[in-house]
Write a structure and sequence with these properties.
Layout (H helix, E strand, L loop, with lengths): L10 E5 L2 H4 L12 H6 L17 H15 L3 E5 L2 H4 L9 H16 L3 E7 L5 H4 L8 H17 L5 E6 L1 H10 L14 H22 L4 E6 L4 E3 L1 H21 L4 H6 L13 H5 L5 E5 L4 E5 L20 E4 L14 H14 L5 E6 L9 E3 L5 E3 L2 H19 L4 E7 L18 E3 L6 E3 L1 H12 L6
Parallel strand pairs: 1-2, 1-13, 2-3, 3-4, 4-5, 5-7, 6-8, 7-10, 10-13
Antiparallel strand pairs: 8-9, 11-12, 14-15
The protein binds beta-D-glucopyranose (2 copies).
Length: 462
């Protein structure tokens, strides 16, 4: 019979990211990131929403820490904003920026919550973009300087440092496509960004190690693609979406087949001697973000460049994305818990040496979330679809553990509703509701459900 109880030592958490929750965009010495520029450009985000205020966690962090403590999580995954820490090109480290994160980290530790810190969750300083951003090799070296500065200050108070969050999105949505900052729409012209992100990962990992040695864990977070359908198409997207990160980072090479399928659109001449040795660094754990799957077919009509989020990957111009069966979320993503199980098994089989964490999983539930005022004046948000989604994905994770996957921790995305990138504030992923008028936080039913799961270390049965 399948387990319903998590093994000893398994950890529960929730996750957020700096630009999505902090606000305080011009405070404490912070300067603009590519997301400030992008969101302030008319037409780029729904309703013209920006992260200027977001959840105001820059000021309300203590309240957020209290909510986390009450939830009972073992760990909290937050990200540090480079534009707070390195606000000017070539200028000094901004100690005031680091002070903010130090306060949050110490407040978490005081409540017995271990911090997991993502060093780069998409808020590249605009001054780096002005010099070419991820198309410029130099950016990788600037990210490493910054990573070292963060690790020097926060040290081993951070249990796990993650270099990058989802470089797939940075390169393919931001440089190949147009839906994320900086939104350049370069198609195959984005491959240099892919490589420079890989290089940044390796250099950042070394910079962190130089400060903390083995006292903290090192990782990276990838949104690995789990695709079904035509085998050829699936293989192609595995190369462009997954192995393009996993092989250099964990094995020290780009797969030859990747070069083969991108022949004619990319010569990879930006890969310099010695880069792959820099990129392959010993990692303690690999973070996987999982939401949904895709269904693929080979197409006979050339259709590059693609415009939809799922299909910007250059080199896949002969792949078709088919509608997925079953229920979908408010994002239009299919609900496929078995995909999580299959993906975890797949990564475990291909890279058995590295322990795994689910660094994000969650849902903007179809229909959205609505506040109910109880007769006694208290407020509630009933979100049965989110509870159902989480329950089924926790079950899938447990099944993978039963079948031998060394899965260490599970972070629910997200701790609270926040700035959902190009969708602005229209998509709610939180287990805590954010009232954007008053900035009040209202725990949803899913928060209470998760609290029980954590207390019992088992999936609630009714
Ligand atoms: C991979 C090739 C790669 C080579 C590098 C092989 O295992 O399949 O794609 O280029 O190793 O040594
Ligand atoms: C990102 C988050 C985002 C979430 C939901 C992930 O791609 O890391 O920042 O909010 O998915 O779209």
């Amino acid at each position: 019979m399948a387990s319903t109880t998590f093994p000893e030592g398994f950890r529960f958490g929730t996750a957020t990211a700096s630009y999505q929750i902090e606000g305080g965009a011009t405070e404490g010495g912070r300067t603009p990131s590519i997301w400030d520029t992008f969101s302030h450009t008319p037409g780029k985000t729904v309703n013209g929403d920006t992260g200027d205020v977001a959840c105001d966690s820059y000021h309300r962090w203590q309240e957020d820490v209290d909510l986390l403590a009450d939830l009972g999580v073992d760990s909290y995954r937050l990200s540090v904003a480079m534009p707070r820490v390195m606000p000017t090109d070539g200028g000094p480290v901004n100690e005031e920026g680091l002070d903010y994160y130090e306060r949050v980290v110490d407040a978490l530790l005081a409540k017995g919550i271990t911090p997991t810190v993502t060093l780069y969750h998409w808020d590249l300083p605009q001054y780096l973009e002005d010099k070419g951003g991820w198309l410029n090799r130099e950016t990788a070296y600037r990210l490493a300087d910054y990573a070292g500065a963060v690790a020097k200050r926060l040290g081993d108070r951070v249990e796990t440092y993650t270099t990058l969050n989802e470089p797939w999105c940075s390169a393919y949505l931001g440089y190949a496509g147009t839906e994320h900052a900086p939104g350049l729409g370069l198609g195959p012209g984005a491959f240099p960004a892919v490589h420079h992100l890989n290089l940044a990962h390796g250099l950042m990992a070394q910079a962190v190690r130089a400060e903390v040695g083995d006292a903290s864990q090192l990782s990276v977070t990838l949104n690995l693609q789990f695709n079904r359908g035509d085998a050829d198409a699936v293989h192609r997207l595995d190369l462009i979406g997954n192995r393009v990160w996993l092989d250099p980072m964990l094995r020290g090479y780009y797969p030859n087949e990747l070069f083969a399928i991108t022949r004619g659109i990319c010569d990879w001449s930006f890969v310099k001697d010695g880069d792959l040795e820099q990129i392959r660094q010993p990692l303690d754990v690999l973070g996987i973000n999982y939401y949904c799957t895709s269904l693929l077919a080979m197409s006979d009509r050339p259709q590059f460049p693609q415009s939809t989020a799922a299909s910007t990957a250059p080199g896949a111009s002969d792949v078709d994305w088919l509608p997925t069966p079953g229920d979908h979320t408010d994002m239009g993503w299919n609900i496929d818990p078995k995909g999580l199980y299959d993906l975890l098994m797949h990564v475990h089989n291909d890279y058995p040496e590295i322990p795994l964490m689910v660094t994000e999983n969650g849902t903007a539930a179809a229909g959205g979330d609505h506040v109910t005022v109880n007769p006694d004046g208290t407020k509630a948000v009933h979100d049965p679809k989110r509870i159902d989604y989480l329950r089924r994905h926790f079950e899938a994770a447990l099944r993978a553990i039963d079948d031998g996957v060394d899965l260490r921790v599970y972070f629910v995305w997200s701790m609270l509703d926040n700035f959902e990138w190009a969708f602005g504030y229209t998509k709610r992923f939180g287990i805590v509701y954010t009232d954007y008028e008053t900035l009040e936080r209202i725990p949803k039913d899913s928060y209470h459900w998760y609290r029980r799961l954590i207390a019992d270390r088992a999936i609630p049965q009714e």
